[in-house]
Design brief:
Helix content: 40-55%
Number of domains: 3
Order of helices and strands: HHHHEHEHEHEHHEHEHHEHHHHHHHHH
Shape: flat
Low-confidence stretches: 1-18
CATH class of the largest domain: Alpha Beta
Number of helices: 21
Largest sheet: 5 strands, parallel
CATH architecture of the largest domain: 3-Layer(aba) Sandwich
Strand content: 5-15%
Radius of gyration: 31 Å
Length: 437
């Protein structure tokens, strides 16, 4: 079972005294060892809050899904909850584990249960388990063989099965504030056992705040940048390492964007862009566009969203909106990034400034409603094509009037089924008609 982090190392085994492995990343070395050291998530662990109350009453720890962005303390909190509750701790990663690993872990928990030892089974990135793998956890979580704690960066409503969700409480972990990140950094600077104090680092508050700001609420990102800045700074004659601004910039690398092209942030940012465009907010639209582009979003995906918006939310209020969006999409596919950001920005500004109307969308869905109700109503004979004599014999095309030769047909010839005669689907947007009229 060496591949599992058995919690017995947390309660007095030799490994517990050894601490983090030598050479481990700073973020791992500085992992909090108690709830007192845990920074952030006071809405969960603060006085009178849910987890603090559960632990103080000595009640059984329920199965949990910890949902939060990277670097917010999900794994650490799971370990601390197990330790505080006196439970063994088995950790699996959904990236590297399968049903066989789950069954072995559950069997070990059953064996220990006979000796009165209860077990927390921690699944990191639980959203990566498929339905069969998640279903393998159900019985053990329900009958108390294990207390399941799953960690996920993705919305569990979409990524965790309903059956498993019903057996767990979902707790949301917030991104750490810049002040909280700064506390984490200062602890690392002043800790000689696990941190950087022995390097004698000297760094200004301004630069610490810059790291905290760039980390985007992710303590791991902040600690990694700080570690790199200290390590790459040469000591002076007194052994002091004075961190320069240029070193911090280099350590941070490209600005950190909390963006996952395959995750929920992808859709949240796209939603923010479209809703800002719909609200005619040029500046907000450009901001969300920049977040997506700099975060690594596929520019073609952005262009597709702009094309949809141009018709769905502007439509005939300004037909040039679709032209602008389509042109941007074509150009982006032709030249890619970084130059493609200019046509995307131009289209974004145009769409934000354009008059808005959802009359096209409303017209279609109004027609859809009637189409569903009358799906088996035959096409009127005069509207049917008659390519063969037999079809003409049965009346196909009879009484059809060609509007170019007979202008009165526009008003006199009915083109809807009899049951829908006179129905109106397209209504001009009276609030902002643009050129619809």
């Amino acid at each position: 079972m060496d591949r599992w982090n058995n919690s017995r190392s947390l309660f007095g085994d030799d490994d517990a005294e050894a601490g983090p492995v030598a050479g481990a990343p700073l973020a791992e070395r500085m992992r909090p060892r108690s709830l007192a050291e845990f920074v952030g998530q006071q809405h969960l662990v603060g006085e009178g809050r849910i987890l603090r109350q559960l632990l103080s009453r000595g009640g059984a720890l329920p199965s949990l899904i910890l949902w939060g962005a990277p670097g917010t303390g999900k794994t650490t909190l799971a370990r601390l909850l197990a330790e505080k509750s006196g439970l063994r701790f088995i950790a699996l990663s959904a990236v590297f584990s399968g049903v066989k690993d789950l069954r072995e872990a559950i069997q070990e928990a059953k064996t220990e249960q006979r000796y009165g030892n209860r077990t927390v089974l921690f699944i990191d990135e639980i959203h990566r388990f498929n339905k069969a793998q998640q279903d393998a956890l159900l019985h053990a979580a329900e009958n108390g063989t294990v207390t399941l704690i799953g960690a996920t960066t993705e919305n569990p409503s979409f990524e965790v099965t309903g059956a498993l969700l019903s057996r767990c409480r979902v707790l949301v972990l917030n991104q750490l504030s810049e002040d909280e990140i700064k506390i984490v950094l200062e602890r690392a600077l002043n800790d000689s056992e696990r941190g950087l104090a022995d390097y004698k680092p000297a760094i200004s508050d301004t630069l610490l705040e810059r790291i905290a700001h760039a980390a985007g609420g992710d303590a791991r990102v902040a600690l990694t940048a700080l570690d790199a800045a200290v390590e790459s700074t040469a000591p002076d004659a007194n052994g002091i390492r004075t961190i320069a601004e240029e070193t911090v910039i280099e350590a941070l690398g490209r600005a950190h964007y909390a963006y996952d092209k395959g995750g929920e942030d992808h859709y949240n940012l796209a939603s923010a862009l479209i809703k800002s465009l719909r609200n005619s907010d040029v500046d907000a639209s450009l901001y969300w566009l920049a977040r997506m582009i700099e975060g690594g979003a596929d520019p073609v995906f952005i262009a597709r969203r702009l094309c949809i918006m141009a018709s769905e939310d502007i439509g005939l209020a300004d037909p040039q909106a679709m032209v602008q969006a389509a042109a941007a999409a074509d150009i982006v596919q032709l030249i890619g990034l970084p130059e493609g950001l200019f046509p995307l920005s131009q289209a974004t500004i145009y769409l934000a400034r354009a008059p808005k109307s959802n009359a096209v969308k409303n017209a279609y869905f109004a027609a859809v409603s009637d189409a569903a109700e009358t799906a088996r109503v035959p096409v009127p004979l005069h509207l049917r094509n008659a390519p063969t004599p037999l079809m003409k014999h049965f009346g196909y095309g009879k009484d059809y009037r060609y509007v170019h030769s007979d202008p009165t047909a526009k008003d006199e010839m009915e083109c809807l089924p009899e049951q829908l005669r006179g129905r109106k689907y397209f209504h001009e947007d009276e609030s902002d008609q643009g050129v619809e009229s």
